[in-house]
Amino acid sequence: MPILCTTLPACLPATETRPDSAAESGRSHYVRHEDAPSPLEPQRSRYVLWTWQEGGKPERFEPLLRYFEHLGRSCSLERQRRIAAMVGLLWDFGLAHARSGSAESIWTAFPEALVGGTEHLEGSLAELRWPPASPRSVHARLAVLDGFLRWLADTTGSRPTAVQWLDRAVAARRAAHRAKHAAVPFSTASAVAHERGRAFSASRRRPATEADAVAFDESKIEELLTVGFRRRGARPEDGDLGLNLRDVLYTILLHGGGLRSCEPLHIFTDDVGVDPTDPDCAEVRLYHPEVGRAPAKAQGSRRGRGAVQREEFLREWYRRAPRTLAAPGQRAGWKNLRLDRPAEGYSAVRWFPKEWGRVFLRLFNLYRAERPDDKGRHPFLFVSEHGPERGMPYTLQSYRQAHALAVRRIGLTVAKALGTTPHAHRHAYGRRLAAAGAPRGAVQVALHHVSPESQGVYTQPSLQQVADDLTAAEQRGVLRGNGAVLKKLGRGST
Fold first, then answer.
1. What stretches of 258-407 adopt beta strand conformation (E)?
2. Hey, is 60 helix, strand or coil?
3. How many other C-beta atoms lie within 10 A of the C-beta of residue 372?
4. Is the pLDDT at 285 greater than 90, yes or no?
5. Do 287 and 196 belong together in one domain?
6. Does one domain contain both 180 and 277?
7. With bands split at pLDDT 50, 70 and 90, how would you rate the model's confidence at 424?
8. Residue 483 confidence class, pLDDT cut points 50, 70, 90
9. What does DSSP say about strands 45-51 and 29-35: parallel, antiparallel, or unpaired?
10. Beta strands 45-51 and 278-287: pairing type?
11. What's the gap between Cα 230 and its chain centre?
């Protein structure tokens, strides 16, 4: 087994440098998002794993590319990145494990190294410098890697030289799976980590409670928007609204449209239009950040070759990645949404009540006029307004800070349990729908939930509402049948 390379630059040829855009990197691998055409998709880009051994040049890990081709469009870029990162870690560990001369099976040592870290180990394994991780996290990461190893085990034909060292482990994995008839990662030792992860998840799992689902106080939303987000030094007599329109629009999307706090960061300026059924109301489309259809201006260049998707549009027009794949500061999350138009990859924002859409359109037109110039660097709607980042995409951390400041300005305390964090607006939206008697199916679509069960935490009544409903039921005489018994007990009669 080749000796583990100790430094990255020594492994790279003189004509090649380590990419600044590497999504993940290790001692003998890095992961990079780049063009990876295939016969069926000549314009396709993927996450590519580059590996090397001592004295060798970095080479594409071809089995992983074939695995991504096998998965097709069902494998998102974010999932590709996670799989490639885990295979890269396994590559590094395999080289270090062989160099250490350990008699312990790699499939016993690898999960334990992920959970406990490697700093306490000896020799080349300690040089990996992996920090400890929770069993729950490790279980999820092993499951990602297990899918690739299952596919590799079932693939026939000769193995590339680069993965010959995996062959014995893959064969052991297949034999263990057939013996146990259970979908557990790799081996018995890994199954222990799997069970630990399940136990960890179960210990933390609990029913949704009032503390989990406190909604933003509806009576405070007007004050939050008009006072909390008011610009410092703004004077009403100047005829200006004096509001930070960016943060007001952002909050309206959460409170009046029910979006999650990270979702507005994916909206392009072209995604906002006029509702064809109401010219005074905004229509906002929430596209999948990677596979959603790109704006119309990008489609003309692909005649006869299918629709341009957002990942390709951002890469070719702006040399940017979707925000699900951006650097940590610019990254924005994305949950699996129910799409109204799967072919185009978007869901529409459902305003409730619809007046929120009318307010949004009026303020959007004002914001577009005063929005800092992005200088053609990106298509995103919300941008930073000050400092060196002026005109660059807004960040979730900046919005959270602005929201917290606005909450304090109107005399409230920032706390999840008090319903004063950004996500509390989504809870307010869900409860508003439930209070209005909206059918479960309508609530599911409005909240963009794939499963109808997901809406429960958003539509459950508050504790005060439950108390008020019980009092009202008593006053309506629902408990009339027990009246004589209650009176008798109240008088202390026997």
1. 272-275, 278-287, 346-348
2. strand
3. 14
4. yes
5. no
6. no
7. very high
8. low
9. antiparallel
10. unpaired
11. 30
